[in-house]
Amino acid sequence: MTTHWLPALVAIPIAGGVLVPTMSRRWAPAWGFGVLIATLGVALFLTGLLREDTVSYAVGGWPPPYGIELRFDVLSTFAVPIALVAALAVPFATHSNEPVTTPEGVAVILVGTGGMMGFVVAADFFTLFVFLEVLSISAYGMVAMSEERGAGLAAFRYLLMGTVASIVILLSVGLLYTLTGSLNMADVGQRLPDGGLPLHLAIGGLAAGFLLKAAVFPLHVWLPDAHATAPSAVSAILSGLIVKMGIIGLLRTPGLEHLHELLIWVGAASLLAGALFALVQDDLKRMLAYSTVSNIGLVVLGLAVDRTGATVHILNHAIIKASLFLAAGAFIHRAGSRRIEGTGRSMPLTTSAFAVGGIAAIGIPPTGGFTGKWMIVLGALEAGRWGFAVMILLGAVILALCYARFVVVVAFRPSPADREGTSEAPLVMLVPIFVLAALSVGVGIIGGPFAAFVGK
Amino acid sequence: MESILFEIVPELRLHLRFDALGVLFSATAGILWLLVLPGPRRGRRYEALLALSFVLTLGVGTAGNLLTLLMFYELLSLAAWPLIIHDETAEALAAGRRYLAYVLTGAAMLLLGLAVVTLAAGDVGFGTRVEVPALGIVLLLAGFSVKAALLPVHGWVPQAHPIAPAPISALLSGLMVATGSFGMIRLIQVMDPPPLAILTGVSALTVVLAGVVATRTDHLKRRLAWSTISQMAYVPLAISVLDREALAGGIVHITHHAFMKGGLFLCAGLLLHHLGIRHVSRMGGAARRMPWTMGAFTLLSLGLIGIPPLSGFVSKWVIGAGMAQAGAWIPLTVLLTGALLAALYLMPIVHTAWFDPPPSEGPQVDPPPPTLIPVLAAAAITIVLGIGAALPGFPLALARAAARGIGG
């Protein structure tokens, strides 16, 4: 099946982003929101088509494997959380005093969204690389926008490490091209040699690059600073969406089965290390950032034992982590600083949403965090890897203690004397938080059919 | 009655079921929650979570398969946590941390056990019997024993129960600990357990050791918490005998104990609130100041020890008869030792309160009727459930029906 809506999925946000600077400061957020909602509509439409068949589009009419091909398959359904989270982040940010909804900020978010859309629908490795750069450079910009102290340094460090990853990925793509004579993913998959050093180098290079982009321990060092210093609306995009691109890249990597043994160990290390680091953080956003490292570890482990479970988990975790970062942003907004002790006392709705998000992040049924985690645990047991199943559950226990700790901080600690009379977050923040929190439970309740759809 | 709901993970559905065991548990929860509702208002957070915990307890009672049971069970663990730390003191927060560490580790074991069982047998509904690897059952039993407060994983009880507000202590002791035992009963309903000698040993040890510790504890609520550990270990002890009558006794003991211990904790709360008494050694003459409260306390204590015709006697008699029938003499001895210990840690309280001179004379300060009624109601329920035990529709009849459904 083919349709012009597929390139539109990429073109709408990028064109929208390019046009923002022509607009007045007042209208930029509204424009950004409108463009992202339109993108969400297209993403939902394409996901609907997917029930019948994969959608493929030959750019410029050149048929694959010779021309550039865009493909909307099951992995591309990630376009829906991308558009949704980005769309909700924009109105959320209008009310905070962080400089996200300036025309420049909106432009970067729109172009970054377009980059992610291109990344998830790219069907050849070179296009994949190009969109990876588009989204990565937007991400560096999103971090640099922050007015927090140290944001510039965090963005620069992110840029340095991200660029190393990009170069390694580009080299590996080149190596794959010389090995197979093709760039089209399906084509490369068929022409892949059975073994040999060049193949292992190419696959290993792709995996290493994507693992760095996904912030897997010990390649995660750029993430906590970048995610914690960025404006909260941006942190939701970074932690919910952009690190997941590394995982989607891994899922697109051919011959990944050669690396299963590596992935399962790296994943387990990241899972536990992320959770343990999260346990000692005193800042909510840094804790959430390390919790992302832990969840990415779970997914990487899952790639080796149950790909469907891993895919389900990145989709669900995108929504869960975005809702948590937005809730954190609301606390910080009302507290006026990073010192959020006791803010939850006057913000019962935000606190409830945060608790729901925490329960989902830990993976208690029937939330969205449970589905993928359960499938990965079952996969590990089925593969006879007992120790890893135990590690996953141990990681969940540690994360639960992390979230409980911050529930205590916001709702059970006294608020400082100089900050009496805070009130519930404004509606424009509450609605995005609640939409995402409700979805984190909703996707869990339909977890069975959802996993069946993803596993098709 | 069953109803099958959402498929939340591939091939596993949420599943509700209403059977004798679930009805008895849910009804117990409903009445106990009514008893803890009166009293000072404690704010929105408290009221909301109290209501949520009730719904989740009903969920535990009406769960129709293992997944649903574990789901409600774990959500209940989390919903109870803010209630335990409601007073926001440093002690309460520390107790909360310890509680979470214990119950979450238990939850992790349960999930792992559920995964093992699911791989072997698929969706395990409570209307069927399945063959599963022993490892799965062991993991599940170990997970449930954290809430059931068996030694050596009882550590959260003596810390969390005394620190929580009195109504929450009543619920924790009355039902939270019982959810663990309830889970164990559901397990043997669907799967043939491996030889349960370890469970017998562990629960026997728990009955005796916790009872001994209770006799040596001066803090009133902590003594009651140790008593809960000791008394609730009767249920796994009864389960491990694998006799139908003993099992019925164990099931009915959950209900009977819930009202007796819930009532005792409410009394302890009233003593603290009106007389400022926390320790047994300070209770001299308390009964002269609060005759109604201490009257109920005395009656509930006698019930817990197992004096006929109170409800505590009925459950112990049925458990004991079952054990004798099955020729399980060691558990029977433990059962009687537990009752003796209960007398040793409860009767001194009663004696001090009635016969020792008060440190200072004062007017009678029995609380006003709205707060006194729940305590008296608990005492009345203890009498009614004891005298009317044989009536149809009473807990014992339901428990016997439930035990018949389980076999043994």
Task: Kindly state the number of beta strands of chain A.
Answer: 2
Classify the oligomer. Answer: heterodimer
State which percent range the strand residues of chain B make up. under 5%
Query: How many helices of chain A?
Result: 18
Quick structural overview:
Chain A is mainly α and 456 residues long. In chain A, 72% of the residues lie in helices and 2% in strands. Classes of the chains: A mainly alpha (456), B mainly alpha (408).
Walk me through the structure.
The complex is a heterodimer of chains A (456) and B (408). By secondary structure, chain A is mostly helical. Helix content of chain A is 72%, strand content 2%. Chain A has 18 helices and 2 strands. Chain A has helices spanning 5-19, 28-50, 79-95, 103-121, 125-144, 151-180, 185-191, 197-213, 223-229, 232-252, 260-279, 284-305, 307-335, 348-362, 368-382, 386-411, 427-445, 447-454, and strands at 55-58, 69-72. In chain A, strands 1-2 form a two-stranded antiparallel sheet. In chain A, 60% of the residues are buried. Helices cover 73% and strands 3% of the residues of chain B. Chain B is built from 17 helices and 2 strands. Chain B is globular and about 65 Å long. Chains A and B meet through helix 15, helix 16 and helix 18 of A and strand 1, strand 2, helix 3 and helix 4 of B.
What's the SSE blueprint?
The complex is a heterodimer of chains A (456) and B (408).
Chain A: H1 5-19, H2 28-50, E1 55-58, E2 69-72, H3 79-95, H4 103-121, H5 125-144, H6 151-180, H7 185-191, H8 197-213, H9 223-229, H10 232-252, H11 260-279, H12 284-305, H13 307-335, H14 348-362, H15 368-382, H16 386-411, H17 427-445, H18 447-454
Antiparallel strand pairs in A: 1-2
Helix pairs in contact in A: 1-2, 1-4, 2-3, 2-4, 3-4, 3-10, 3-13, 3-17, 4-5, 4-10, 5-6, 5-10, 6-8, 6-9, 8-10, 9-10, 9-12, 10-12, 10-13, 11-12, 11-16, 12-13, 12-15, 12-16, 13-14, 13-15, 13-17, 14-16, 14-17, 15-16, 15-17
Chain B: E1 2-9, E2 12-17, H1 20-36, H2 44-62, H3 66-84, H4 90-121, H5 134-147, H6 156-163, H7 166-190, H8 197-215, H9 220-232, H10 234-241, H11 244-275, H12 286-289, H13 291-305, H14 311-325, H15 329-355, H16 369-387, H17 395-406
Antiparallel strand pairs in B: 1-2
Helix pairs in contact in B: 1-2, 1-7, 1-11, 1-17, 2-3, 3-4, 3-7, 4-5, 4-6, 5-7, 6-7, 6-9, 7-9, 7-11, 8-9, 8-10, 8-15, 9-11, 10-11, 11-13, 11-14, 11-16, 11-17, 13-15, 13-16, 14-15, 14-16
